[in-house]
User: Fold these one by one.
Assistant:
Number 1:
Amino acid sequence: MTEFMGVRDAVRWVSMRGIEPIVTELVEYLEQDFRRWGEFDKAPRVAKYTPLGAIELMPTCDAEFYAFKYVNGHPSNPARGFQTVVAFGVLANVHNGYPVFMAEMTLLTALRTAATSAMAAGALARPDSRVLALIGAGSQSEFQALAMRAIVGIDTVMIYDRDQDAAEKCARNLKPMGLHVTVASSAAEACAHADIVTTCTADKSVSAVLTDNDVRPGVHINAIGGDCPGKTELDPAILDRGPVFVEFPPQTRIEGEIQAKPADFPVTELWKVLSGLAPGRTDPDQVTIFDSVGFAIEDFSVLRYARDQARGTDYARPIDLIAEPEDPKDLFGLIHVLSPVK
Amino acid sequence: MTEFMGVRDAVRWVSMRGIEPIVTELVEYLEQDFRRWGEFDKAPRVAKYTPLGAIELMPTCDAEFYAFKYVNGHPSNPARGFQTVVAFGVLANVHNGYPVFMAEMTLLTALRTAATSAMAAGALARPDSRVLALIGAGSQSEFQALAMRAIVGIDTVMIYDRDQDAAEKCARNLKPMGLHVTVASSAAEACAHADIVTTCTADKSVSAVLTDNDVRPGVHINAIGGDCPGKTELDPAILDRGPVFVEFPPQTRIEGEIQAKPADFPVTELWKVLSGLAPGRTDPDQVTIFDSVGFAIEDFSVLRYARDQARGTDYARPIDLIAEPEDPKDLFGLIHVLSPVK
């Protein structure tokens, strides 16, 4: 039977364990998987773009497991009372093709995105980073802040969102967590003393939520909101300020901030930095940029982690997703025909 | 909430309704969707091939719904006590990206494959067809036979499988359904008086389960087992005997029987026949060949049908696949933090 971790299960698990302990362990899974990058079958996600948004399937596999995530992105959703991004995912056994674990992935995606951001910042930001600027205070924002504390040690968060209610919501959620939290009135103000800047806005447009002037020397920029064609967050001039790190170049060139740049714009793959094969930050005054679009291997890692976490607990339960007739050639035998037809 | 039709639900539904009434209605859904072929976003399936088999995602969408199916194909599975093919699928709302219906699709795939075969045979076989030869007596075989009776009116089934137990199993299942059933000792014997020949073997190899000699004039061939690169069932000479009909040429040229032929081998798209835009059979003595590999729109149709069938019944139940926080920007608010950290 496939094990299923639904929303209620995931909420209970995260509430019991806490976001920071989970992110800390999840970063270990992510680092394991990024360091064996070559073992994965990689392909750009399969996206369908519609007038209101995108629906994507993100598959990957290694020699043992196959994983995919279903995820949408509909920027107009919150105004209509829906989540911008909802997601679920499946981990399957490569040897027989059977799905072994299915999970809601709205929460798991927020956790894996935050953990990936924090892992990258741990490798690229100045070790003495203490102040995080959050540009965009939507669903991802609190997860980003707590992950940056767990992995990098930030203690202060400056929040800017053009939706003042969202900024206040984020501040209200983070203050009880023991962080110094301030709502700023502009991106420039939020960034004035920032060591790390995370852009996580949801606008489906080419915008510059961060201008070149906002970025002071030595900052690490964690750009996670520019993640589909026609959706970027950074003034392209920022991309010339320092080295740009990416997950999987063929995907990032289509979906990331560097879509604003020529196809040969130089980038460094994050897995190479984590494996010691490429330099990360080389100077405290350098600007480093993680142009993150989210990649299937990150979903693989979080599914693998969540499955390990759920095993032997009640955070997941069996679901009858797969028919298992006694004789595998006798699928028809499952049908209890009530009376012979003619 | 997403509605979920699990294996127990699907078995109960099919047992209560019966395979033939379901296939008859499903063919109406399939015909509706094939006749508006141009409205669908189509792409070849996304497949990962591993030493033991393939795992595939098959997405498609129209202006209202997005559907995908997860499906494997592992020919060595039955020998290890697993199903060759297991599958599940999801129907989502294009406007907000939310999945609305999830279903097991091992049974649903058998139903949609049988219904598609029967729909094609209804358009291409001689109207007086009464004898079906089944080459391959695995999971799909009984569904194929009953669908051919429901749509085309066959009354006699000749079964051949090199696995004698499988052939006997198929005969045992079909006899109580009121069909004249005979187990043949060779493909040639099974085909000797056949009007329709369905090949549904699972061997992952280039084989010729049907030779040119086995095919008498006027036969309609329904080739469904050759469905991935390196896996074909027909003697390539058969493909020169009459017009070849396919679902989606770019996919069939990679996966179907015509992979044995040059890239410009002429084929007719089945949807054009169903829409009256291309001729089907033009002569009672003609051999017609449906080179079927299974296409995403067929899964779309069966998911749409199963959802309509389950609505207002207990054949599906809500599943908490998608987080729905009260404030869509406050995903974090779902987490009931037990105590402030640090």
Number 2:
Amino acid sequence: MASRSIRLAVIPGDGIGPEVVAEGLKVLEAVAPSGDLAFEQTSYDLGAARWHRTGETLPDSVLEELRGQDVILLGAVGDPSVPSGTLERGLLLRTRFELDHYVNLRPVKLFPGVKTPLAGVTPDDIDMVVVREGTEGPYTGVGGVLRKGTEHEVATQESVNTAFGVERVIRYAFEVAASRPRKKLTLVHKDNVLTFAGDLYQRTLKRVGAEYPQVSTDYCHVDAATMFFVGQPQRFDVVVTDNLFGDIITDIGAAIAGGIGLAASGNVNPDRTAPSMFEPVHGSAPDIAGQGKADPTATILSVAMLLDHIGAGEAARRVEQAVSDDLAERGALGARSTSQIGDAIAKRVSG
Amino acid sequence: MASRSIRLAVIPGDGIGPEVVAEGLKVLEAVAPSGDLAFEQTSYDLGAARWHRTGETLPDSVLEELRGQDVILLGAVGDPSVPSGTLERGLLLRTRFELDHYVNLRPVKLFPGVKTPLAGVTPDDIDMVVVREGTEGPYTGVGGVLRKGTEHEVATQESVNTAFGVERVIRYAFEVAASRPRKKLTLVHKDNVLTFAGDLYQRTLKRVGAEYPQVSTDYCHVDAATMFFVGQPQRFDVVVTDNLFGDIITDIGAAIAGGIGLAASGNVNPDRTAPSMFEPVHGSAPDIAGQGKADPTATILSVAMLLDHIGAGEAARRVEQAVSDDLAERGALGARSTSQIGDAIAKRVSG
Ligand SMILES: CC(C)[C@H](C(=O)O)[C@@H](O)C(=O)O
Ligand SMILES: CC(C)[C@H](C(=O)O)[C@@H](O)C(=O)O
């Protein structure tokens, strides 16, 4: 049977990025035959090393090459030797914005056997999906600084929100909610303070919601939401929120669902006008880089999301199941290295 | 002995506000003699009812009266019958801004006997103070909406940060840190995305920090900070952060330290050019208003902060100790009403 060929761009990045990506690819190779998939991989040398060497973060020519790919797998970017924001804005956010990744999809799910810091909480209590807006809000980079370094300095940051941008992400969130058993969508914002942006989100939720009578909707201020994540995570099914609030609440989501080593994400362009990009939520963790200590599970779960995105749902389920089985046994297994975890999961998907 | 007379403005506000404020005042009256204090109370009818009656949130004349007071105690404002933001912006935030409450002081402390949702955490693990900026950042109200209601709508919110505003709150935070045993100050921001504002905070931390060699400093992105609040709260001693990040992390702080029913705060004008205002972190909770279900402890702890602010440290310690003793016994006491809790604590401080 002819297998489908997928052009896969790989951006290992900095710190533990290359290590966890290697395990993600290992699992991808292991599951590919069952999904009748062949991956044509291109690896892109982007991140701190390149910046030190050339001063480049994401050259236009590389961005154009990325546009020609089907899908992207990214490890992590950022290093203390590079001024804060340089790689984040110049590489990671630039990719999200240029490739119109307007949905930043972040499941928050507690797998059986995984330790949560919350007392008395079971896997049934934590199972949600956060749909974070990915291309506007406070992440636009709009703003500036006046009289820098003087006592009269003024530094501004502007959150820009458009009807176009808000509607498309809310519509996507309704679709996700409609596909899930509970069919509940919660908007998280701060509409009592950020009144202009909050009002746009609220009106759009109401208007688009009229097309989804089967989905119940709810609203929660971001400050209260963080409290409910810790005290009452059952409250949430699908959450839609802006770029910055989504950044914050998905880290709490990771914390309650067993830690950043398990949190996967997809930067999705649902209209498929450009390739989507899958990456673990964690950063480059330079302090543990190169020691085989990083947990590749978040990257492997991101690979499952990648498989879903390219239409290989059955392969995605196999990877998820393998991860779930591996997690269920971890407590009994003792410490394993990055590649030992990758090997074990790869073995399960192929076996 | 002549007692000192303090002009106290009381804003009971909406929902459970009046109920919890009544208990706060009960405790204040009970502790006053020992502090040689006499309070000259003026109650201000502000909140949802007044807005419905007159359309006013905070009339200029009332604001001027408030300026003439020594200190303010506020319950809570906000009601679902009033458009979101009307009272928050028109009353609460207006007071904070007009009276230059540039320090929003929020202790996060787990008292012995209090249940935390975190597994395996003891009171020694959670003892920090968040110094939240209170007069700028994304709370300025700067921003607007263009082409409202059309598909071309644009809604903006601007975070405005000044050298003046950032320096004074950071300086205050260093003073707090220097007064505590651990002497550790952590800046929480998002300087890899909000580069202009984050850079101003970072440079100011470094510059002011040179004057406090005894205080160690640290930086944490807001998303990671929320994760550490849940997984590693021991990491924090004093935290300084902007207005919006402070709003969010102090709600997680409340969640890990036993819930919003216990979280106190002070909107402080350290230069004493206008009265400071003390209030529980919680909102007006209209769903449980008038039922005697609200926990007045957060308001009573806010009263302790108020006492500290007016120089009645000994009375403040008595209130804190009474709360601490009450909390230690709560587990054994079963459900009590709002006024029963207030009575019990008042009895302890006077007895
Ligand atoms: C690295 C940083 C720019 C990024 C973000 O803020 O989006 C990260 O925290 C994330 O959540 O993917
Ligand atoms: C009611 C609201 C405007 C307020 C804030 O955002 O500051 C509240 O959440 C708080 O933390 O005091």
Number 3:
Amino acid sequence: MKMEIEDYSKKIIIWPHPEVVEDLAQLRQKAPLTHCITNVVVTNFTANVLLAAGASPAMVVTIEEVADFVHIAHALLINVGTVTTFDAEVMLKAAATAHQTNTPWVLDPVAVGALEFRTSVVEKLMRYNPTVIRGNASEILALSGFGGGGKGVDATASSLAALPAALQLAERSGAVVALSGEVDYITDGKEIITIPGGHEIMTKVTGTGCALGALIAAFLPVTGRALRAASTASVMFATAGERAFRESRGTGSFAVAFLDQLSNLGSTGE
Amino acid sequence: MKMEIEDYSKKIIIWPHPEVVEDLAQLRQKAPLTHCITNVVVTNFTANVLLAAGASPAMVVTIEEVADFVHIAHALLINVGTVTTFDAEVMLKAAATAHQTNTPWVLDPVAVGALEFRTSVVEKLMRYNPTVIRGNASEILALSGFGGGGKGVDATASSLAALPAALQLAERSGAVVALSGEVDYITDGKEIITIPGGHEIMTKVTGTGCALGALIAAFLPVTGRALRAASTASVMFATAGERAFRESRGTGSFAVAFLDQLSNLGSTGE
Amino acid sequence: MKMEIEDYSKKIIIWPHPEVVEDLAQLRQKAPLTHCITNVVVTNFTANVLLAAGASPAMVVTIEEVADFVHIAHALLINVGTVTTFDAEVMLKAAATAHQTNTPWVLDPVAVGALEFRTSVVEKLMRYNPTVIRGNASEILALSGFGGGGKGVDATASSLAALPAALQLAERSGAVVALSGEVDYITDGKEIITIPGGHEIMTKVTGTGCALGALIAAFLPVTGRALRAASTASVMFATAGERAFRESRGTGSFAVAFLDQLSNLGSTGE
């Protein structure tokens, strides 16, 4: 079955502003403990994004503790960006535990399809039913098996071009798929939410995508709905990104202003 | 023996300003080599805090090198925030070496009591007599065994409520205890130093507490007195934190301004 | 054979400005995929430096993937700053693969000579013919065997004092040596390029030297000449550092402004 992009145009809706405000207020009140097993490049930025938004980050990454901590945490993020032999075991145990305890969790399958080891790790992680899968066009194309089993993955594929793959992946896996790109799309295989905005400079600061995965995780226990959690987190990122760009003088001050904007979002009812 | 908070009120003193100025000048002159074995979230921020203050940070974290480097270093920090199976072995070897060479060292028992593995690692580390133990109220309560062996640890416990535990822990272990919170308390089991100031926003930037542990370590070889080292480092943090808040526009610019303020402290005699 | 510093004075040339502009334009057009196996303190800053300059950073650090990724990458950086038992194996496999595939690579031998384990790792890495070796005076002295086999390594040695060692190391190894210090020198054993400028504050922000190694790696596939790649990257760092200092208020804002300046370099033909 070949799916055409235009088939979806009528289903696309824009995420409403009032729900974002409400969700953010809830996040700040509940400060969900968000367990992040993520890559070594973005740990600090991810923790600061979660703190700026109002969540409580915690990185617990050793095999002896990971299951216990999934029991304590309200949500889990697994990002395979710099996965090692040891991390893989930790991630699988975390995902298995989350599956067992019904802890909502986000899978960020960084560079899946491009390297064998992580592809096999991601395939195993998929068995534990991630609540949300967040990735760029290439990753979603690879993971969905679109375009011939991950071959021909195009790092420059647009998010719109990967939308059919996102829909199919969501339908098949039962996960909500958050597809990042110039425009973000979020889908459960039926509804499609589109998040315009943001700014291209976000691709010039490491970890913005990875940190979005963490923030989606933080919103999962707050909203109780994966589509809504991913949409609200994405709107926050797009809004903070746009505002931060206006007051930045390059990529360094953009990253700083982005955290400022996240921490100030909603404080004046905006 | 039940200890009441009011019993200590008469012993509490505020750390004097002239000693901070003197210690900071010494730190900048000596630039103590400060060996940090810390968690993956805060390595960069910790190194930048030490450099801003005037110390020389070094992270040496492999079992083959750790003992040799403790011999070279002037001070050691061990922070168990993201301890793994391998890190635990490295930390124990570092602590054993520091004990043997009389290298002053700081233990930061992140989340002790909350997870079994790190709790057992921290218990073993305690055998090597840390010079200073730095933690928040929950960690000091858990480590002291107050409130029933770590059970009922309250992450929101105030530092004042944990002061009796800090005193007992200091007395029993021989370490100076630096208890972080809205107000910082530092005690050797007899004297209690209180450090007012700082700003709540510091809890919204990851690594401020962890970096304080590192700065206390850096001051140990400079001052030669644990109570003084912990007090001076804490005053620097509170002062830089207050000043940084006044020029920040959110959590991102606060972290930047905090490093700026640390690097400028004392440069004009302030 | 004793070499005198003055012997080289006539060979020293200053890297010309037009070539930097041209190389930078090329870097931004090609966005070379730069594989970084670096220390845990500087991963984030290194990635942000590469992104600001216009390259594509990627940290792939597990034994299962490292060879495959060297095949995909345009350049490689190996920095032994926090090398562990496991990292050493990964680094050796990466270097062996780069040697085989003719992928240009930079070796940053952090603290070589000071600790046995990393010294032996660096010696093994040297067998795979790094394209560029980047280090400070102490590291270059230790690696060249000058001054008696690494003994008496002086962390405060000036870059000029280490220039004879750099020349000998370049001649013996076939690598271009990029010697960082108050003044940077770059040599292939015959020509010597000198890079004035920069600012002392760069030594107060962790990772500036490490990130320079990464940027040199990124320029290798773009320029096709190691001497030119190292020179252009060093000029960019010196220029961005000088400009950033003028708009900074301490070490925190300097790091931010440094990334801003890197991201803005060349955008107006400067």
